[in-house]
Amino acid sequence: MRIKLDRDTCPYFDKPMKDCYCGVFNSFTIPSIVRYCFNDYEKCTHYIQAVLMNSKQEVLKE
Ligand code: SF4
Asked: Fewest Cβ atoms nearer than 10 Å: which of 1, 16, 37, 59?
């Protein structure tokens, strides 16, 4: 399957987290993969949680 990449792909796509849609390609996850992983990743709840977790960790390191 080829998917046209019009916009930026999520930075987690190559190394998905355990709950990422792109961890499993099937009829249930593909719509979310196209919608979020290949387009609006900044609206993905997994991405938002990861960014929030990383920002908290950076605050704790300081
Ligand atoms: S868009 Fe969401 S599900 Fe897709 S790779 Fe990024 S964080 Fe994971």
From this structure: 1
Could you tell me the pTM of the whole model? 0.79
- Return the amino acid letter for 3: I
Q: Which residues line ligand 1 (CB under 6 A)?
A: 10, 12-13, 16-17, 20-22, 36-37, 41, 44, 46-47, 50
DSSP three-state, residue 62: coil
- For 47, how many CA atoms within 13 A lie in the half-sphere containing its CB? 19
Nearest atom of ligand 1 to the alpha carbon of 12: 5
Domain chopping of the chain, boundaries: 1-62
